Amino acid sequence: MPLTSEPLRKLGFLTIGLFDEADPRRGHESTLEIIELGERLGFDSAWVRHRHLQYGISSPVAVLAAASQRTSRIDLGTAVIPLGWENPLRLAEDLATVDILSGGRLNPGVSVGPPMNYDKVKTALYPDTADAEDFGYERVRRLLDFVRGEPATDFSGTTGFEVFSDRVQPHSPGLGRRMWYGGASLQSARWAGEHGMNFLTSSVVKAEESEDFAEIQLSTIRTFRAHHPDGDRARVSQGLVVIPTDSASAEQRAKYEEYALKRMPRTATPQGPARMMFAPDLVGPSAEIAERLYSHAAFREVDEVAFALPFTFDHDDYVQILTDIATELGPALGWQPAA
Fold first, then answer.
1. pLDDT per residue over 190-215, tens digit each?
2. pTM to 2 decimals?
3. Nearest to 201 by CA among 306, 57, 58
4. Alpha-carbon span 38 to 178, nearest angstrom
5. Which terminal Cβ of the chain has fewer Cβ within 10 Å, N or C?
6. Phi-psi category of 193—alpha, beta or left, where left has phi over 0 and alpha has psi -120 to 50?
7. How far is CA 175 from CA 92, 107, 182, in A?
8. Collapsing DSSP states into helix, strand and coil, what is residue 332?
9. CATH superfamily assigned to domain 10-332
10. Spans of all domains in the chain
11. How far apart are CA 202 and CA 180, in angstroms?
């Protein structure tokens, strides 16, 4: 197996939190149980996706508020909240509240752009301002300012018995340093670096300079760090779909391999007008996955990851995958579980 000079420092995982419409509580409980398991296994972080008007987590901040009361150590993140669905001022209040409740463990990841299927949802989401909404980086900048304690109004003081603040309350002083941008393009990487954010790079990138996924991702990471005040020390987390099979049953291995095979065609060439490139899912024994990761140019550039769990598997599958990641794959990458 190739050696890496930098052992993996932080190991996390990402889950979508699917549920059955007839029994949504069971799905949400499953997500919380998986996060609790992650803490017991020594993972450094657990991240949740969003799914609006679908059968997945629609309110990641609320789910992480619950997770904060069932865990004590593991970092809790969102990967990512699409800000097109959010009011930055209200979101800043929610994020700060959960960060306080978690003891400073929240790592909010966000992205920009119009909401998915915007033409179909805009009259419900923004009935009076749909054509005037700005879904660009300014929305992130506003959120960062509010989270970091910049004034939200020019008024503060007492009116009658009511006391008012000119900034978002509660204010959580460390939260501003734990804000992440989920980006797939060089422009996003540059903007996130210039604004002092951390950077989430996933299994999807934009083919701007190449059609080789690892080369594209490496360029994105280096662009981010080149524009960040912390330079090479700026935090980047890579999130590929990783499915170790060390303790999987024969049935599970067959299911995992079929899942990856069905998704493989999209990895061959850029997809759609935006020319998005997808990384292949990594399925197999941990030793083989570690070799493939060590040969991945972008993986060699990072020391923290949040491996993505597949979308459609069962609870027992996630337990097996997480256990193998923590006990087999993580150590093969030089990682040590948290105490």
1. 999 999 999 999 999 999 999 999 99
2. 0.96
3. 306
4. 20
5. C
6. alpha
7. 10, 8, 17
8. helix
9. Luciferase-like domain (3.20.20.30)
10. 10-332
11. 12
